[in-house]
Amino acid sequence: MIGAKRKRNWKVLLIICDITIGLLAASTHLGLAGFPAKRILSGSMEPAISVDDVVLVSEHTDFCEIGPGDIIAYRTDGGLYVVHRVIEKQEDGLVTKGDRVEKQDGNPVTREAYAGKVIHIIRNGGRLYDMMDSAGFRILACILMILTVLWL
Questions:
Q1: What b/e string do you get for 47-71 counting C-beta neighbours within 10 Å, with b at 16 or more?
Q2: For residue 4, how many C-alpha atoms fall within 13 Å in the half-sphere facing its CB?
Q3: Running DSSP on this structure, what letter comes out for residue 7?
Q4: N or C: at which end does the chain have fewer Cβ atoms within 10 angstroms?
């Protein structure tokens, strides 16, 4: 009886591990709760947002609702994402700049380039991204999934 209970507990633990790994992988690459996650690669927004932080971006916040003080993500002509603070709203778009940068960004951000409003900052979340991309993590995930299938 004790052996059967212990085996059932291991099955439950493996299933929980599989679900957790799946959720972590999905959340780092697809976003959390439907909000795209963007990893910060530069210090232009320090101290508010640091290198290796991850920001969650709401694509549901309308461009018209954005104003000075809001932090937004936008796409450059080259397809890169930039996360900067809005300092002015003009007829032709939003003027942005990094908190740590003296000069404002080049052209105003248009509705087409606007990717969304930053709604949450995950401090040092970049480490989770690194972990998900490591070979060791993938091997561990495969082993746990195989064990789960074998034990079911």
A1: eebeebbbbbbbeebebeebeeebb
A2: 1
A3: H
A4: N
> What are 88-118's pLDDT values in tens digits?
999 999 999 999 999 999 899 999 999 999 9
| Secondary structure, 3-state, 87-110 | EEEECCEEEEECCCCCCCCCCCEC
Q: At what angle do helices 135-151 and 2-30 cross, to 10 degrees?
A: 140
Token readout for 107 is 């052209």
Q: How far is CA 122 from CA 51, 85, 118, in A?
A: 11, 17, 11
- What domains does the chain contain, in order, with CATH numbers? 2-151 (2.10.109.10)
What number of helices (H) and strands (E) belong to the chain? 3, 6
Token pair for 26: 């999905």
Its pTM stands at 0.70
